[in-house]
Amino acid sequence: MTESMPFLEVKNVTKLFAGEKISGVKNISLSIAEGKITAIIGRSGSGKSTLLNLIYGLIDPDAGRITFLGERVWGPAEKLIPGHDQMKMVTQQSDHLNHYAKVWDNVASLLPNTNLTYKSAKTTEVLQQLRLLDLKERRVADLSGGERQRVSIARALVANPKVLLLDEPFNQVDASFRDNLQQDIREIVRQTGLTVIMVSHDPQEVLSLADELVVLKDGEVVEAGNPQQLYQQPENLYTATLLANGTVFNGIKAASLGIATKKKTIMVYAEGFYIDKNSIENLCTIEAVLFKGFYEELVLNNGTVKFKTINLNVGAYQTGDRVSVTIKQFLTFEEGLA
């Protein structure tokens, strides 16, 4: 690949589906970096899975072009078996697994028998990478949902794809299992240079895992960048609400908390409020204290607006307490409330 040639490029791609309302993607252009994890995010119906399927070659675009290493990605209209040969896709479903076969056989079956030594070594390597080697003799039917997802990813990786596509891959996996699986994927990317493109609706997932974010709204890219940049300085209110737990205020409600701004809308992340028991300015009532482990989520109301904030000093406040609340940081947007 030459320096001037994009690794994977989507150029002016449109794919529309007619139904109760028009959905799909519209005139999307983006470039995917090699050896990075790119996450496509957006609300339900924004076109995330459609874009992923287009990149893989499972559906044909109505217009535009997708290229991988300088060559066009062919869709089912030109390719007998849809899906690019150097890409693999994993979804949240496990229907493609043989549930009555062992873990080892599910993964090894993706490799030919022309070199049995390599087949055994490669299967062992991938199972080790995904912490499945101890389960190699177990039937898939006897595994948990998270373990089955690991087997699905192992099957995808054993054939050495250049691109791994993940469509809501952690949706049915519990939190602790998900965190470990994400760490394993990051390590595989670091070791092998694998490129990962994933679709997700979970802000914690994409902020901790992805190197780059692509934000879709109504089938169009509204902004893109690295997670820290988009979290701290989003260009759109839509992006901020996707990535953060916070409260959106109009001008009147913002003024009730001591913020004067000519912008139509402000958003305060949950960590952007400061609480003081010893002040009488901007008094609010704590309506609920929600225990979250190492922190609490406080629901407050000043009579004009209700909002949530984070309290790290667990046990310091009770429902009904009157506290002073000031805003230490906030975002402003020209757009109104959606």
Task: Give a written overview of the molecule.
The chain is an alpha+beta fold and 338 residues long. It has 2 domains: 8-241, Rossmann fold (3-Layer(aba) Sandwich); 245-333, Beta Barrel (OB fold (Dihydrolipoamide Acetyltransferase, E2P)), CATH 2.40.50. It has 9 helices and 18 strands. Strand 9 and strand 10 (220-225) form a beta hairpin. The longest helix is centred in the middle third of the chain and has 18 residues, at 175-192. This is ATP-binding cassette domain-containing protein.
Series of secondary-structure elements, N-terminal to C-terminal: EEEHEEEHHHEHEHEEHHEHEEEEEEE
Report the average pLDDT across residues.
91
Number of β-strand runs:
18
Q: What's the structural domain tally?
A: 2
> Beta-strand percentage?
25-35%
Overview features:
single chain; 338 residues; alpha+beta; Rossmann fold; OB fold (Dihydrolipoamide Acetyltransferase, E2P); 2 domains; 6-stranded mixed β-sheet; 9 helices; 30% strand
Could you write a compact summary of the structure shown?
This protein has about 350 residues and is α+β, with helices and mostly antiparallel strands. The protein is built from 9 helices and 18 strands.
